[in-house]
Design goal:
The complex is a heterodimer. Helix content of chain A is about 65%, strand content about 5%. The longest helix of chain A is centred in the middle third of the chain and has 38 residues. Chain A is mainly α. Chain A has two domains: about 290 residues, no CATH class; about 110 residues, D-Maltodextrin-Binding Protein, domain 2. Chain A has a four-stranded mixed sheet with strand order 2-1-3-4. Chain B has two domains: about 170 residues, Rossmann fold (3-Layer(aba) Sandwich); about 60 residues, ACT-like. Chain A, domain 2 (Alpha-Beta Plaits, 2-Layer Sandwich), CATH 3.30.70.1150. Helix content of chain B is about 35%, strand content about 30%. Classes of the chains: A mainly alpha, B alpha/beta. At the A-B interface, helix 1, helix 7 and helix 8 of A face helix 2 and helix 5 of B.
């Protein structure tokens, strides 16, 4: 390798980036990712029920046809939407009451139950009400709990017995390795593992697929020979890899920025503290300390994973004879990616220490496993640094192999080159292949 | 000497594909590499340009090893292509920039070549549109034109794509131009267009190396040739000298009435006869004169008597046939 091998990299980079960004499929993909980034946090807050969505109640009319008297203060304490509500008893009929309900008012009708039910709670709102289904459900749930307590009190149960009866309970199942960890830790660890490995998987699959397609397209459209007059094969592949890196990492940064924006906007309306809890439990404490080193581990792993799969994509693409081979080349990459993904998920679920150590230290697997194992405290910084060194060495070997065979592969015509044949080509340079 | 090719050798596995090829181009002009399919022409051109490594041999340009990154070279490859989904303008600017031409200069040259090769409708497409608005007292808005982005390669016919590729090869105004089968697949109109461009490059003192199967086309331009057959050089030299070496052995004869008997008496051989037109092979001018004597003696009415050297096609077929027999 010498300086001339890289001449023209900038031009290839610029052209590839420009063409990639101007394609309609890229624009659509970026738009979808932007929407997902913006929508993910509010949707998660609503779906998980962590949000304090909805409208605060004004007047709550209570039509109680049972002998039990629920405590309205207890109802108000159950949900903050009911905190400012005024509770008024009414003897009017349901239809009459509904007629004069305001836009933030509701009617709570408690009636003796039929078909074996002890009681029945129905909540009404006005036709033009601002209250949503979630708000009415919250009122019904609060009223139901208060009514249950009222029934117990009417039966002579004292306050200490009430506490024992109404207190909840939880069940947990631990493996031996998990003893001493909380359930919340396990849940957050799985969520972070899932989110991180998905990010690596999408980064690698999308970017390497693009590189495969780009290389095969140049080969299939017979352009590569003319391009090789002006740029060396290494510059040709490096320009593509860098262009895709800029696209992929800018997309990730952009998604993170949009998600942050969405977080700050959403928290004005919804409770998003669950995100901070997750991140904190996963080791992202912010500022210096473990949070910083974890971010470094994540970035390093993403970059090495990207570089490995980009080089692999270049090699497999160059080994293709025509556009029909493109699918097989991408499938080859998918297999590598899926191995990394599933290994990471299975090792996290199983919590098997040797398995997690192997994952953290093996080239390729470490991109998926090392940051998770580090965040989880399974490996320390020393082990993480060792994993980085191993990854860099593996990347160097892959890059050297790519440099050795890429020129021969580009001029190759005919059947797709298998991995064994690929390895046997090392050092042949521009020697060409017998097709 | 401006271009010197010395003893190029190339093997793919055990198979020798170029065996000891040497030639020189001391002055501008067209050098033709001729040969049957698989003779080693394209491999030779790739080695000359450094796209493919040589097993041995050297290529010198103006006394120094030819390094395509350092000298201005244009190449029209036999396997031609363009990015199907990208606009022509983007591609041409990219190719020009890769050959060291600035973006602004590339745009200027593209316009020039677009006019020359009649590609304006693809590189600078426009659309007629009705003008909106109403000019008071002057009626409606009329029509105008809107510039559109240049077309994509996939929207062009094969012939027009070939023109774009030709343009890409010449856009850097190269000193050394390598054309691998430049006319293959072209219709007669575009063939003439390409010929005129090649002639223009010759007049401008460029060095052209051309490989082709179309002997008549090559014969129009080239001064020197090498005929390759199964990787070996079977004939090489200045085309006129080669032809002179063969002598004038082709006689085209047209007469009134059947003169077959006269031809037989002279010892000449009829190659082809169509009504009273004859293509005759003679051993040389002496035999041709003898035939003319017989015809005069027999008082035959001669309409045409044209004694010529063999064509490149005949030389090629003869040489390749001889080599195949050996």
């Amino acid at each position: 390798m010498n300086k001339n091998d890289f001449t023209g990299t900038g031009l290839v980079f610029r052209f590839t980036l420009r063409q990639h960004l101007s394609s309609i499929s890229t624009k659509i993909l970026l738009l979808i990712l932007a929407v997902i980034s913006l929508a993910a946090i509010p949707v998660a807050a609503l779906v998980t029920g962590a949000g304090r969505s909805g409208t605060e109640f004004g007047l709550v009319y209570i039509k109680n046809d049972t002998p039990y008297e629920p405590d309205t203060e207890a109802i108000a304490r159950r949900d903050e939407r009911l905190g400012g509500a005024e509770f008024i008893s009414t003897d009017l009929g349901v239809e009459e009451t509904v007629e004069f309900l305001g836009r933030r008012d509701a009617l709570l009708h408690i009636a003796p139950g039929g078909d074996g039910d002890a009681f029945e709670i129905t909540v009404y709102r006005s036709p033009d009400s601002e209250l949503g289904d979630g708000d009415l459900s919250a009122l019904a749930a609060a009223a139901s709990a208060a009514f249950g307590t009222a029934r117990l009190e009417a039966s002579g149960v004292d306050s200490s017995a009430l506490g024992a009866l109404e207190g909840g309970f939880t069940t947990r199942v631990y493996g031996w390795e998990e003893y001493g960890r909380s359930g919340e830790d396990m849940e957050s660890r799985m969520a972070v593992t899932y989110a991180y490995t998905m990010a690596v998987m999408f980064l690698c699959v999308f970017s390497s697929s693009f590189i495969v397609r780009s290389v095969v397209e140049e080969k299939a459209s017979k352009l590569v020979e003319v391009l090789m007059l002006s740029v060396r094969p290494l510059a040709l592949i490096l320009g593509k890899i860098l262009a895709m890196a800029v696209t992929a990492f800018s997309t990730l940064i952009g998604m993170a920025a949009l998600a942050s924006l969405s977080y700050f906007v959403t928290r004005s309306f919804l409770d998003v503290s669950f995100i901070a809890d997750y991140l904190s439990r996963a080791g992202f404490t912010g500022g210096a300390g473990p949070g910083f080193s974890l971010i470094a581990a994540v970035l390093f792993s993403l970059v090495t994973a990207y570089m490995f799969f980009a080089l692999l994509g270049g090699l497999l693409g160059a080994g293709c004879g025509n556009m029909e081979d493109e699918g097989s080349a991408i499938f080859g990459i998918m297999i590598f990616v899926m191995v990394g993904y599933f290994y990471s998920m299975i090792s996290t679920i199983s919590s098997n220490r040797p398995m997690r150590l192997i994952g953290a230290l093996s080239p390729l697997l470490s991109s998926f496993c090392a940051p998770i194992a580090y965040a989880d405290g399974e490996i320390g910084f020393g082990m993480l640094a060792l994993s980085w060194l191993i990854s860099l060495a593996a990347l160097g070997v892959t890059a050297r192999l790519a440099a050795g065979v890429y020129e021969s592969l580009l001029l190759h015509r005919g059947k797709r080159i298998g991995l064994t044949q690929l390895l046997s080509l090392r050092g042949t340079g521009k020697g060409g292949l017998v097709s | 000497m401006s271009l010197e090719v010395h003893r190029l050798m190339k093997k793919f596995g055990d198979k020798t594909v170029v065996d000891d090829l040497s030639f020189t181009m001391p002055k501008p002009g067209v050098y033709a590499l001729l040969g049957t399919n698989g003779a080693g022409k394209t491999t030779s051109l790739r080695m000359i340009l450094g796209i493919l490594s040589k097993d041995s041999g050297s290529v010198l340009w103006k006394g120094k090893p030819l390094e395509v990154s350092e000298c201005n070279v244009g190449y029209l490859a036999e396997e031609r292509g363009l990015y199907p989904k990208y606009t022509l303008m983007d591609q041409l600017i990219y190719f020009a920039e890769l050959r060291g031409v600035s973006r602004a200069e590339a745009r200027r040259r593209i316009k020039e070549w677009s006019d020359k090769l009649d590609l304006g409708e693809y590189l600078y497409p426009q659309k007629s549109v009705a003008k909106k608005g109403f000019a008071f007292g002057r009626g409606g808005g009329g029509t105008g034109t809107v510039k559109l982005p240049s077309k994509k390669a996939e929207q062009l016919s094969k012939g027009n794509q070939q023109k774009i590729q030709f343009m890409a090869a010449l856009i850097s105004d190269p000193e050394l131009i390598v054309l691998d089968e430049p006319m293959s697949g072209l219709d007669p109109v575009n063939t003439d267009l390409f010929k005129s461009v090649i002639n223009e490059q010759i007049e401008r003192g460029k060095y052209l190396i051309m490989s082709s199967h179309q002997m008549a086309t090559v014969e129009e331009f080239c001064t020197d040739i090498t005929i390759l057959h199964r990787s070996k050089t079977v004939l090489q030299g200045n085309l006129n000298e080669i032809k002179r070496g063969y002598g004038r052995i082709n006689l085209s004869l047209k007469a009134e009435g059947d003169i077959s008997a006269c031809i037989a008496r002279s010892g000449a051989r009829i190659v082809h006869k169509k009504e009273n037109e004859y293509m005759i092979k003679v051993t040389g001018e002496e035999q041709a004169n003898a035939l003319l004597g017989v015809l005069i003696e027999e008082k035959a009415t001669i309409i045409r008597f044209d004694l010529r050297e063999p064509s490149l096609h005949e030389i090629f077929v003869g040489k390749v046939g001889d080599a195949a027999d050996e």
